[in-house]
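Re: the 246-residue chain
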Amino acid sequence: MSQQDIDRFSLRSTPAGVANPTSLALRLRPAGVAATLDLRVLELLTARLCHELSGPIAAINNGVELLVDEPVSGKAGEDPDFVHDAIALLGDSARRATNRLQFYRFAYGFGHGGPMVGSAPNELATRVFEGARIACDYGESVRLLPLDWQKLACNLLLTGAEALSRGGNLVLTAGHAGLDLEAIGEFAALSPETSAALSLATPIAALTSRTVQAYFTGLLAEALGSRLVRTGEPRRVRLSAIALAG
């Protein structure tokens, strides 16, 4: 990221609530540490990705089995509604699998300075939450950020979704202080394990497939020269990635 980009997100004011004792600030480590991922982190990210894809792919398999068991088209006894429902299941499941693959390809696979392939990040984020209990508001201000920052934004969305076990809203914005995500919903909260991983306080050996997303998000923030701040209140969790000047 250029100095101009860093200056754009320099810390000019402290976001409301940062002084809260529940706040969590990311401790920056020496340059280059975040650039290399431990093998265990890669394994856990892969396991998480496979878990995200297993649902819709299993549904596709179920739809195919239903069609195979249905009498051949044109023969007596065929149920048109049944066939229509099976095909609809296949189409919906294939679309969900594709949306997740495209989103994770950007969230996990996009490299610094690389070209953007496919849809814009905000479109990928909208699609991956489509039909879910969580609504995603990817602010216009975020869409103007460099792609490296939007990659962090997408990973913040995944981390924020962990706080909304009963559904809710994810609101992503950007301003002069940095990148902001609000997770709003009933009993919105991040577990102590997820919070520790977000601050990179969790030893790599202690990471799990549930906490590795937060850890990876913390690494991305660190690589961009920023610190993460978490604040919480009833029905709301706020995650802020604040770029450090210089």
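DSSP finds eight helices and six strands in the chain.
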